[in-house]
Amino acid sequence: MLEKKLLWDYDISLEQYLEYLYGREEEGWFDQDWALARAVNNLNYYELRELIPLELLAENWSKIKDKIRDPAVKNGLEFVLQRETVSSSG
To answer: What is 57-83 written as a DSSP string?
Structure first.
């Protein structure tokens, strides 16, 4: 199911996508930033949390937040990331 939501318009496998997502591979614009933004833009919150650890999202948020199309999603994730960052550092 995730593969259809994430890669419906690309001819790459879920395994290849995961290589980009976790920063193990990059090819042209297929890189970690692309993969993270793609997941945020195409998955619901629960699917996103299953696929991506919050730490990975937090580490890369400043690079991808301008690529998030839906302002509600962007604001919601900023809230979650801020709350998680504060609670894990305290």
So the answer is: HHHHHHHHGGG---HHHHHHHHHHHHH
Report the distance separating Cα 1 and Cα 74, nearest Å.
Answer: 23
Question: How many domains would you assign to the chain?
Answer: 1
Q: How far is CA 44 from CA 38, 58, 65, in A?
A: 12, 17, 16
- Structure-derived torsion over alpha carbons of residues 69, 73, 79, 85, reported in degrees to the nearest 10: -80
What are the pLDDT digits (tens) for 15-52? Answer: 999 999 999 999 999 999 999 999 999 999 999 999 99
Secondary structure class of 45 (helix, strand, coil):
helix
φ, ψ for residue 43 (rounded to 5)? Answer: -110, 155
Reading the block at residue 16, the tokens are 């290849």
Quick one: pLDDT band at residue 11, thresholds 50, 70, 90?
very high
Domain membership of residue 39 as a residue range: 2-89
